[in-house]
Amino acid sequence: MKDKLKEITENTLERVKSVLTPEELNEIRVKILGKKGEITALLQNMKNVPAEERAEIGRIVNEAKQTIEEAIKKADDIIKEKRLDEEIKKEKTDVTLPATKITYGHRHPNRVMLEEVEKIFIGMGYEVVHGPEVELDYYNFEALNIPANHPAKDEQDTFYINDKVVLRTQTSPVQVRQMERGKIPIRMIAPGRVFRADEVDATHSPCFHQIEGMVIDENITFADLKGTLVSFAKRIFGEDTKTKFRPHHFPFTEPSAEMDVTCFKCKGKGCRICKGEGWIEILGCGMIHPLVLERCDVDTQKYSGFAFGIGLERLALLKYEIDDMRLLYENDIRFLGQF
Ligand code: DAH
Asked: Whose Cα sits closest to atom 5 in ligand 1?
């Protein structure tokens, strides 16, 4: 039995030396020391060993087990260390390589433009307010002197939720909501999304943005309107910008006008941007119609006011010389990254 044990031990130690993986080592452990292992099988013969030799054999068996156990552990440690070394070698990083560039997001051209406009008006003492995008027909049309049979209400232009509710087609309803709060004087701008049933093309989108403006106080005249909008235009397009007010019609203002600015590109000579006109229309405006004021319980004997509506995309397209509005909505980062 002693000889057999010696043989098993020597063979095992020899095998362990040439093993390459922890899995193989484990196989050996099970085969020699496991429940059905060779040494365990040997121990079953103990009953045949004379009683006086048993203690000694027991000691030898334990020693053999320990020797094998230690050899396996040692081999296991060596294999694992070797693997780790190899992995570290493979992962070696070259710290002298240039770092990967971090790309930052940035504001959309519409937002850059809006923030510029807001800054100008806040500087003149205006408050920035917001109204709902899903609006009552009353605020979007009726209260603004746009009666039921007015062509602006045409189903082809307006997204109707039902008879009384629409997606607002303009930011002008915010004027009415602000007046209804009953606090005068008012100096406000109301930027936001508006919706019209338009086909998408280079200059139209079913969803775009306007910036509404309104001032109501004592002694507000057309001179205040002009002074405000002329200085706004100069701030946006440069000090040498000239402006022109053309008579126009809006149901909720009287008199009404559209304001043109000299083309910032050709300074009025005529070019591709202004389509040879030298002038570019940027907003609609006028003195708030007395009927609109009265409907909102504003005392027209005491107060008067002006209002204006600016197309945000129009400003952004002009400012950045973009010739197709669709580019603003397609969110192609190759385009957006240029601003
Ligand atoms: N709401 C008008 C539109 O969408 C623009 C406008 C014109 C607004 C004159 C005004 C204004 O406040 O006074 O066409």
From this structure: 309
Task: Pick from 157, 166, 170 the residue to mutate for probing ligand 1's pocket: most ligand atoms within 8 Å of its CB.
Answer: 170
pLDDT value at residue 156:
85
| 192 within ligand 1 shell (Cβ under 6 A) | no
Confidence of residue 31 (pLDDT cuts 50, 70, 90): confident
Residue whose pair of structure tokens reads 């940035």 in the numeric block: 106
Per-chain mean pLDDT for the chain: 92
Distance CA 143, CA 145 (A): 6
Q: What atom of ligand 1 comes closest to residue 252's alpha carbon?
A: 13
- At 254, is the pLDDT very low, low, confident or very high (cuts 50, 70, 90)? very high
Those residues with Cβ within 8 angstroms of residue 304's Cβ, 6 or more apart along the chain or in another chain = 216, 217, 218, 219, 220, 221, 287, 288, 293
Pocket probe mutation, ligand 1, options 228, 252, 258, 281, max atoms within 8 Å of Cβ: 252
Phi first, then psi, for residue 169 (nearest 5°) are: -95, -5
Classify burial at 64, counting beta carbons within 10 Å of its beta carbon; exposed 0-12, middle 13-18, buried 19 or more.
Answer: buried
Q: Which residue has the higher pLDDT, 48 or 182?
A: 182
Q: Which of 25-39, 226-240, 303-317 has the lowest mean pLDDT?
A: 25-39
pLDDT at 209 over 90: yes
140 lines ligand 1 (CB under 6 A): no
